[in-house]
Each structure stands twice: as C-alpha cells, then as structure tokens.
Protein: Phosphoserine aminotransferase
Amino acid sequence: MSRAWNFSAGPAALAEAVLKRAQAEMLDWNGSGASVMELSHRGKRFMELAAATERRLRRLLDIPSNYKVLFLQGGATQHFAQIPMNLAPEGGTADYIVTGIFSKKAASEAAFHVDARVAATSESTDFLTLPPRPAWRLNPQASYVHYTPNETIRGLEFHEIPDVGDVPLVADMSSNILGAPLDVSRFGMIYAGAQKNIGPSGLVLMIVRDDLLARPPRPIAKILRYAEQAANDSMLNTPNTWGWYLAGLTFEWIEQEGGLAAMAERNARKSAMVYDTIDGSNGFYRNDVERAARSRMNASFVLHDGALDSMFLAESEAAGFIGLKGHKAVGGMRASLYNAVSPAAVEALVQFMRDFAARHG
Amino acid sequence: MSRAWNFSAGPAALAEAVLKRAQAEMLDWNGSGASVMELSHRGKRFMELAAATERRLRRLLDIPSNYKVLFLQGGATQHFAQIPMNLAPEGGTADYIVTGIFSKKAASEAAFHVDARVAATSESTDFLTLPPRPAWRLNPQASYVHYTPNETIRGLEFHEIPDVGDVPLVADMSSNILGAPLDVSRFGMIYAGAQKNIGPSGLVLMIVRDDLLARPPRPIAKILRYAEQAANDSMLNTPNTWGWYLAGLTFEWIEQEGGLAAMAERNARKSAMVYDTIDGSNGFYRNDVERAARSRMNASFVLHDGALDSMFLAESEAAGFIGLKGHKAVGGMRASLYNAVSPAAVEALVQFMRDFAARHG
Structure:
C-alpha cells in the first residue's frame, strides 16, 4: 500500500495513526463485537466515548466551564443559517467581517434570517488582505460579530483575535481550529466543520458560551435550536457517531503529539518551508497575500506562467502528491497544511517545487 | 475477533462484507493513496463514486426519472423541520398521520413551520394499531400528507401504501427503506436516515419528485432548500463523504445478495421466525401490535413477568447478543431485523429465546 502526500483543502488528510486505529477497530470496537457505527449512540459504550472526547477537547483547548461543547451536523454552511436563528431575535442585526468567499457566504446565508451587515470587507483587494481593525464599522447593538479567522481559498489568516468590545464574537474556525492554542474566553461562539483539522466531513464542532444559549428562542423547530442540543448533550437525534469517534481519535493523537503548542510549532515550521520556497523562487512561484496575514493552514501560490499549471499538477500527481489544485474561484495551486500533514510531506513538496522550478524556470 | 449478534434499532448492524471492504480500503481507497474520507468531494474519484451510488440506488428501487436523489445531513429529525419549509408556503397546511413516537415528533417539529394537522392518529391504542384509512380526515388543500411507514419503537408497519389522492405523499422511511421493493411513483417524497438500512448515521437519503422541488421557495437560506441541493447534486456544501461511500457499498451488497426482492423474502422469513417464537411461547413472550401491522424490521416483545427483563438482557448479552433492550418509552425487548441482520443471527436469537423461556417459564 502506498500513501499519497495529501495536501487537500478539505476533506483533508487524517493522521495515519488515526486511520490505522479505525481500521483495526472496524469490525470490533472496544470489545463490543461491533463497529462503533453499528452501536446505539445512547448505549453505555458510545456515551463514554462521547464524554471522553469532550473531556479531551476541553483539555486541549482549555475550554472554560461556562462554555458548552456540541457535536452537530450540516457542515459549517448550515450553521451560517442556524446561527442567526439562534443568536439574534427576529428583526435583529448582526455584523459580518468579510475576508473571503466563506465569510461572504456566511453573511449571505445569514441575511435570510437576520439583518446581516457587512461591517468590514477586503473584497476590494480581492481578499488578499485583512481590513484594518480601525476601519471596522461595528454596531454596538448587533447581536454578534461574525468572522472567519482563516479563509482557506486564498489562505488568509487572522493571527490575532480582534477586539470587538462587549458584542459576542462568533468565529467559523473550520480551517484553523486546533492548529494552535486558543483563548476560548475571547469568543461567544466557535464552530468548525470537522473535515480539515478534526475528522471526516459531516460533523460540526461548536463551542458556545452559556449566555448565548439562554437567548430567547425563535419559533423554530427544536432540532434547530442549539440550547436544545446542549440540554440533550448533542443527542436530540442520532448524531454522526463515526465522525464523533474519529474526532476523539484525532484529539487523542494531538495529545500524544504534544498538544496544541506542538501543533502550532509544527504548523509554523511547515508553512514557513512553503512560503520560503515561494519567496525564494525568484518569481517562479508567487503568493500575493498580505505578508502578516498569510495562513499557516493553506498556502496558495501561482506559477509565473499560468500555462505551466497543468504540467505542475500532472507532474506532482505522478510524483505522489494530491490535492494541490487551487480552488476554482482563484485558480493556481494551494497546499493545505493541516495538523495531519506531516513535516515529511512538506519536505517532499518543497523539494518537488524546487525541482519543478529548476526544470521549467 | 468475535462479532456479536447485533439487533440494534439504529445505528444498526452493517453487512460484514461492507465493513471488511471499508476496512481494507481505509488507508488507500480506489488507488488514490488516501482514505475516501481524505479526498475532496469535488475530485474526480469521489464524483464518480457519487454518480455510481446514485445509479445503483435508482436500479434497486427502479426510481422514475422525474425524481431526484439527494444525500443530505441532519438526520430525519432535521427534515421534520425542513420539509414544511420546502414543501408548504408560509401559512400553509399539511396533514400528518400519527402512528408512533416518530410520526408524532415529525408533526410537532413541523408545527413550527406549517399548520401541521393530525389527520389520523392511533395514540388512543398506545400506537399498537394503524388508524383505518377510511377514518383519516384528509384536507384536499394540504401541501402534503406525511406518514411513517414503519415505526421502529413499537414495530408497527404499513404493508400497503395508503391512497391519499392528489396530495403528495411524504414518507419517513428511515427504518424500512430497501427492506422490500417499493413503488416510488406513489410518493411525492421519500426520506430516510441512513443508520438502519443504508449505512452509518449522519446521512439522510431523499428521493423527491421534480414538481415538489419547483414549489416557490420561502425566504430561507439556500443551504436549507432542497431545490438548491438538487441543482448542486447534493454538494451545495461538503457532504458526509464517508456515509455516502458506505451507502454505496451497502447498495452494492444488496445487489449482490439478489436485490430488494431477495431482501423482502429474507426479511419476511426472519420476522416470521421471531413472531412465531413469540406467539408459540404460551404467553411467556407477548407482542401486542395489531397482527396485520406487525413490522418486518422491528419485532418488539415483552416478557410475561417484567421482573425477568433484566435477566433476559444480562443473559442475552453474555450469550453474545447486543441491542435487544426496548426503547425507553415502551420498555421490554426489541429485535431489529434490518437487511444486514443475517438469518443466522435470527436463528441464534430464537433459539436463545426458547431456551430462556424453558429455563424461566
């Protein structure tokens, strides 16, 4: 069996140790005589898994006790719609910071359910920069401020948590959660689709402060209310048990690897390798994102001659790399460098990039 | 490794052949050098998997061309809420046939989004019967009629598709889809949580007639609109790729086993074995569901002396059976007999039941 060097943006590489464990336990998990997928979520074994997984996440992120942890479904996109239903009253307003395609989509989906105001945007720079904090026009009456700490398509990342005063800060951390230590207490709500740094697609992790769950509910079905899910330990209906299980294995793997500080150090090193290769290529490769906001999770680059794109992709694939094609909205290349992407994979990538440039430069 | 005899109600047993295939392909699916979970849903390989999976389902169920097939998230419960948002106008009405805890919940969740009228209910018999069709008070102006062909908790099943005239019939088939051949053309919409007869939890299969997708949309986010999902081949956002993959493996397994006619024959045989054992136990075991509506998927039973329940569960577990405890709402026992539960497992169960009765009768 040969494993590819996987730089997919999401669904993305999982830790090989996690996959091997899932493989070994596929027909008989935890002595149950069944796969974890074949067992009731309300049975003793799965309930213990769920509780242990939450404890592990709380340890990793040092989550304060006044925050609930939820394991939901629907992808982050569904929560673009559900968040305003839960956090804002009908006719209420919310502020959106738009720094890329995902935060723009978050605002446009929310707009069906709240007066979603764009308080700041970097669309005029084609999302290659972050709008400077002093230029944000925040509304102190907003129900919340929403932003996307890492935009995967360009690879544009906030390296500081913005101060938005007393209005709760809501963050779509799909593509950078668990990539580094985080001060959860700065947020009202953090949510993340699992398929980048947590596990398989089809699972959404949510960390939400108690007072936001106490906001008066709109007349929406119970299944759409976060407070109901919190009161039912994310089991108002059958959860994605496989996703929850793999998230637990991933959290365990992160702990074994040294926790979030170790991840942050590794991710900084990995992304520096790629950016150094780009910047040292004498213009063969280029990344136009504002230096201070380059993402540690997604390094995008274009080739000096777009005609080489298809050759880069074909040769990289032949050399055992997958997932390097940039998002269709921007083209070019993108190397996603999530936790499960090993330094060895990045070593191989930058070596390939240098060789390719030497051959075609 | 020893596999248990798994009678769980859901998440439920998967075919062992499916699990073994998933196990073998865990680190390298389809020559990709990655798990299917680690690949983009928009990549060529996964797109082919998605298309092949849909084709296989269309063959199995002989789905007419004017029906779309969707692979969604959220569990059936989320769609209790989403169906009225999509099929009824604001201020519209819909009829609900209430024959158990799930259809009752479907109506109560829908009631936040439509005038959900109970057109018939068997709650007065504690859901042990089906309300006779002539007593249904259907509203010809309703946007749809919703029913639950199989109620898993009691094990109460419609063995005929009810005629509801020109109003579209909507069915939550979570617990009996693919258990037998089906005339899809009788329905406006069929939906099913995957975790009983399709695959792991976290996936919802939906089969919906084109004209229902053309109903004018409410002002809800795009991600909540079925028409948008249909227009985007269920990839408006990242789908549950692992669930989709396992559904495909399960459809393939069903075809290899002889298709839905073979499943129906096997399920009839399996359920007859359990009901015959109950009925032939001289009252040691009892099933109080109306004979004509006994479920082929979930056979519930109580012991003549409730004090024996815990002993039955402990001894059955020691003998290698799991998932036999009845739903907390009704107590007693329940053997779920979905497609993946082998006749050999049912043989073992009825033998255990007879032995237990002999020892404690």
User: Anything to note?
Assistant: The mean pLDDT of chain B is 97. The domain at 17-256 of chain B is CATH 3.40.640.10 (Aspartate Aminotransferase; domain 2).
